[in-house]
Amino acid sequence: MTSGAQQALRRTMEIYSGTTRFAFACNMSNKIIEPLQSRCAILRYARLSDGEIVTRLMQICKAEDVQYSDEGIAALVFSAEGDMRQAINNLQSTWTGSGFVGGDNVFKVVDSPHPIKVQAMLKNCAEGKIDDALDILNELWELGYSSHDVISTMFKVTKNMPGLTEYGRLEFVREIGFTHMRILEGVQTLLQLSGCVAKLCKIHMKADLFKME
Fold this sequence. Notes:
By secondary structure, the protein is an all-alpha fold. The chain has 3 domains: 36 residues, no CATH class; 61 residues, Helicase, Ruva Protein, domain 3; 95 residues, Zinc Finger, Delta Prime, domain 3. The chain contains 11 helices and no strands. α4 packs across α5, α7 packs antiparallel against α8 and α9 runs antiparallel to α10. The model has no long low-confidence stretch (mean pLDDT 87).
């Protein structure tokens, strides 16, 4: 809802508050104007755990006789980021489109770079192998993924990437975050992503930050 529409709703709430109860659902509370928020009791719900999403997806697959692989379920959980609705929508789309819920099929449906590819690129960065890292980045770019797709997947993979020390992980997240900010501001070029990869490789000089497996 636009700010103007929310202002109009505010007046409606004032008129009918004695006989009507209003309930709102939103993903970003900062987009709700303060007058509306002040008239509501705010309930915040945390994202669901991976285990909760897996349990529900398995129930659906069993009830609907959906054929799947463990990699497919893992891909659904990865792409959903704690959002059950997103996980179920991706499950339905993958099953309808391909007839089998596998890892590759899921990432085709969500149109997101495969995390294994992105993890390989980040591992090369952590080892200072800039040429290998850029080769993978160029491969992802040629497949048609946008800069936002790539940088978002880099962030998600970094959070759980094995072998990085905690401080090293924070250094990676910091550089990826700066690049993400520039991309959101409109600089959505391959050069911007390449610069991020170069900065991640530069962190390799602080060898004590990384203990790659």
